[in-house]
């Protein structure tokens, strides 16, 4: 067996050992996690027999084993993320996680089905075991884990009600295995990792996680008062000198932030430090050196909440004040990047052969993803027009690199205009229509990023993007569908694009997504339908798809945001339509709407109240 094949066997061994060595899972994904670990462990005898065999294997065997290596690598990555990630986030996104386990299971089963076992020098006993394992993976294909109905209900009530019953949090602490102070500290650390990996721009769900974590901690303290005494012993904790996460430090003072605020570039600073910077006459963002569009400082409440929680869990007292803020960046030295290296890459983009262009575009893609300084440098060096030219490359990989590099560059607000002015929109739409699946996904994400600027919404719609985004919404991977949906939603804020979307036939696929809770696209489908329902053509198209039964069900059992959007759609459909009102009434909408009008979001309360008024008028006419 040559070195290449030996390396492949060794990699398979390492992956199986890596999976076998993972600790027991204590989250909502425990059953899926345990089943996958158990099945992967059973593949070990196959690899051991292959390692001991002196028989040369053919390319078809190597190809099958390479597919298995890729699948097991995905499995290990998924298992680690589940084991180390936030338990609360997993519970909130259990449908998405179930889908990821399903995809990995299908990957492994496909790999096992492509290995020609009759050409392998393995024992009969091992062959029988592998056939059994393969059969287990085959049975597991297409089977989504059934959700824990009680958990889903408790999570919804914990977020929805103003003063939830403590019993709800008691049940959640048991279900999520967040019973002790150590459990809660691990959960808090998982949150910190998410904040840092998000680049200092926490997702909306972090606020929900922070709220639930605080409530679960209160519950733990109530159940075990002695924890309070243990946590009160700050001297023990202080000796451990906890490391402050980078995402919690002010980029100017490098100290823990107590009042984080966001500037126009999206960077977060300690209020007193950035204010001193502005008062000194600076017009740029200290970290990115971008010109500030305005000097409004927006409080970063989510990050502030996470910092407070971290301090509480680590016995760190928030600073009373930040004292003197010194600018750690001496002078106006510009961005921290390797301009010479970037210029060398641009030379290859402009004048290199196909392979050099592909490699250079790939390197720029990675550099643009890495940090904000690189995004500024790459754009200033003139890369954007060259990357736009490569969108028309006949080489699919070069095209993928180019569109993804533009996506990463577009994160910088100033670069959005440069990309559009370089004539990128029609070419990005063409990639969305004809590129590889990865290129199409990233093209959709790029269009979403560019559509944040209002005038770009008009140009993107006029370039024919919406029908192609709808196609990706129907046939894309889970990630592709998400990218397409977010782009369609943002584009549909412009009235002309609502009409384009409806006439391109968006409503039927959205209704299919809405009726498939296991698909993980219900949030996006409802959000787009809510925005389309505000237009007469959108309202008519939605009404033809008989949506009221599922809308009433979402109002009754959905998440706060989904209940809000469902109520908004129902209000649009029922306004001026007595027949729809009667259908909603017969389905028991009144009771669900009354509950929503008391416990929903502010917008949900208004929409629910408006529909209730319409129902009362119908009842009055009927009587």
UniProtKB/TrEMBL annotation:
ARM repeat start-end pairs: 382-424, 423-465, 505-542
Keyword Transmembrane helix recorded: no
Pathway(s) where this gene product acts: Protein modification; protein ubiquitination
EC class (word): transferase
Gene Ontology annotations of biological process type: cell surface receptor signaling pathway; protein ubiquitination
Any one GO MF annotation of this record: ubiquitin protein ligase activity
Domain U-box: 243-317
PROSITE patterns with a match to the protein in the record: ARM_REPEAT, U_BOX
Catalytic activity: S-ubiquitinyl-[E2 ubiquitin-conjugating enzyme]-L-cysteine + [acceptor protein]-L-lysine = [E2 ubiquitin-conjugating enzyme]-L-cysteine + N(6)-ubiquitinyl-[acceptor protein]-L-lysine
InterPro entries documented for this protein: Adaptor_Cbl_N_dom_sf (IPR036537), ARM-like (IPR011989), ARM-type_fold (IPR016024), ARM_PUB (IPR058678), Armadillo (IPR000225), MLKL-like_MCAfunc (IPR059179), PUB12-19-like_N (IPR057623), RING-Ubox_PUB (IPR045210)
EC annotation from Swiss-Prot or TrEMBL: 2.3.2.27
Keywords, sorted A to Z: Repeat, Transferase, Ubl conjugation pathway
Functional summary from the UniProt entry: Functions as an E3 ubiquitin ligase.
Name of the protein this chain belongs to: RING-type E3 ubiquitin transferase
